């Protein structure tokens, strides 16, 4: 697609990486500043009219809301003030698959700070996207080329 690519894991603060490396799941307090920083990156790209892809485990609806709206998504449920930035238009891709397939892929990953033992906590935290969120669900049981094609097709459809 020729789009910029960001891996959200590259933007975790050192404290989050240490916590995960020790097998301790992140909580909302750990994730919110990280998600706000990711929102800022996406906002910057949007402002420069640059399309981008962000690989990110936005496990909860609130996390996805922070990615689209920034810190204002968690401060309150007050209506937006005039002049505030509108929410970013993001297509969320929910890569869905059984825990054993994902665990097998995590076992093959080398040099990553998140150990496979934290996978269950991610499944426990997961709130799959639902309407009115802008999302598609893609099965991880498909081949990589099929997954990529399905995502590209959804992006090109708008």
UniProtKB/TrEMBL annotation:
Enzyme Commission code: 2.7.1.12
GO MF annotation list: ATP binding; gluconokinase activity
UniProt pathway annotation: Carbohydrate acid metabolism; D-gluconate degradation
Family, similarity comment: Belongs to the gluconokinase GntK/GntV family.
Cellular component GO terms, alphabetical: cytoplasm
Presence of keyword Kinase: yes
Name of this chain's protein: Gluconokinase
Stretches of the chain forming a coiled coil according to its record: none
Keyword match Transcription: no
Taxonomic lineage of the native organism: Eukaryota, Metazoa, Chordata, Craniata, Vertebrata
Catalytic activity annotation: D-gluconate + ATP = 6-phospho-D-gluconate + ADP + H(+)
Keywords for the protein's UniProt record, in alphabetical order: ATP-binding, Kinase, Nucleotide-binding, Transferase
GO BP annotations, alphabetical order: carbohydrate metabolic process
Domain of life of the source: Eukaryota
């Amino acid at each position: 697609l020729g789009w910029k690519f960001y891996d959200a894991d590259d933007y975790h603060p050192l404290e989050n990486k240490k916590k995960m490396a020790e097998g301790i799941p992140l909580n909302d307090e750990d994730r919110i500043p990280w998600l706000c920083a990711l929102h800022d990156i996406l906002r910057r790209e949007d402002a420069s009219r640059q399309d981008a892809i962000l690989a990110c485990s936005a496990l909860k609806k609130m996390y996805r809301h922070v990615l689209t709206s920034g810190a204002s998504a968690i401060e309150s449920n007050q209506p937006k003030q005039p002049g505030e930035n509108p929410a970013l238009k993001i297509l969320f891709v929910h890569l869905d698959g059984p825990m054993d397939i994902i665990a097998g892929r995590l076992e093959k990953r080398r040099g990553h700070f998140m150990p496979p033992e934290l996978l269950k906590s991610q499944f426990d935290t997961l709130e799959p996207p639902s309407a009115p969120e802008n999302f598609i669900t893609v099965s991880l049981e498909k081949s990589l080329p099929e997954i990529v094609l399905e995502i590209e097709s959804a992006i090109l459809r708008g």
